[in-house]
């Protein structure tokens, strides 16, 4: 049986980032049920660093992580963020929602500002005339290289002697004399005084195995399609301001991402492309 100071269940962004930090001064084992890491939510992200996103706690965490992401340690081999200002768009009749959002968000993110429909179209001419009632610009939003962030944590954790096991689904957990014993689906056992449940959407399933009350998390598939859109038009509309657009809506919409098309057509040199349609 392998023994560690800490066992982490789940090899998504939460598990590997914690594994990296904790393995600085203790032995850490990370158990991932899939054959590859980042197979689930981490691999589906729309890759946007948004200080306005979530409630006040999430906003505070995002704001605090900017320093790390902008100046990562050397196990991160490339830049993790690149500027991609984001435009939230309220269609006619939904402007009040955006005013409320701006009032909430500006407490922690003072540089978000409301922009009128004309300025919004100036920032992103792909908006149909008359569509937007109001918009909100988040000028310091960034695009995240999610793969680079995740791999930097994995590399750093391994360099610190942290151990990562894939194809290892935790199927049982017991606690005795201050030690947890986790058993995987093949019957192999792992032991540690501390277990971190970083199983994402399966956190309740893992909690139940350990006799911990579930909090109501269910694994549901939610996918955003990032498409190279408007191939014929996109090069015409590449803006130096590189504004991404998010639509204020109660329903899901696929995201449309013109970035790759822009790069293929040489638009990168002009500063990148606008992006359309992230659901809120
Ligand atoms: C469509 C979409 C778009 C998103 N866009 C953004 C965005 O633009 N910006 C942003 O910041 N965030 C975004 N997010 C959110 C972000 O992706 C997640 O918050 C983050 O990836 C969660 O990481 P995690 O490690 O908690 O979960 P996961 O990545 O799901 O990792 C959990 C891991 O636990 C493993 N596991 C589960 N059960 C067991 C078990 N019994 N034994 C062993 N392993 C187990 C799973 O296989 C999985 O690998 C988005 C999410 C989605 C779905």
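Q: What amino acid sequence fits the structure above?
A:
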């Amino acid at each position: 049986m392998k023994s560690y100071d800490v066992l982490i269940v789940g090899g998504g962004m939460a598990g590997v980032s914690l594994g990296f930090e904790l393995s600085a001064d203790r032995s850490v084992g990370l158990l991932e049920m899939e054959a590859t890491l980042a197979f689930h939510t981490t691999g589906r992200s729309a890759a946007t660093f948004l200080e306005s996103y979530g409630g006040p706690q999430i906003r505070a965490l995002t704001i605090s992580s900017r320093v790390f992401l902008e100046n990562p340690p050397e196990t991160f081999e490339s830049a993790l963020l690149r500027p991609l200002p984001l435009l939230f768009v309220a269609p006619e009749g939904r402007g009040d929602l955006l005013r409320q959002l701006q009032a909430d968000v500006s407490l922690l993110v003072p540089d978000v500002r409301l922009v009128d429909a004309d300025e919004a179209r100036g920032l992103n001419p792909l908006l149909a005339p008359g569509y937007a009632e109001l918009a909100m610009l988040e000028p310091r939003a960034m695009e995240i290289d999610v793969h680079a962030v995740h791999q930097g944590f994995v590399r750093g954790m391994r360099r610190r002697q942290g151990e990562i096991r894939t194809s290892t689904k935790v199927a049982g957990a017991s606690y005795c004399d201050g030690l947890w014993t986790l058993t995987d689906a093949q019957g192999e056992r792992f032991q540690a005084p501390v277990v971190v449940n970083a199983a994402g959407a399966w956190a309740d399933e893992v909690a139940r195995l350990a006799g911990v009350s579930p909090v109501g998390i269910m694994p549901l598939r939610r996918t955003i399609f990032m498409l190279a859109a408007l191939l014929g038009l996109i090069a015409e509309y590449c803006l130096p301001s590189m504004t991404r657009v998010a639509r204020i809506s109660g329903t899901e919409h696929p995201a449309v991402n013109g970035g790759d098309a822009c790069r293929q057509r040489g638009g990168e040199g002009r500063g990148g492309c606008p992006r359309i349609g992230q659901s809120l």
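Q: And what stands out in the fold?
A: The radius of gyration is 22 Å.
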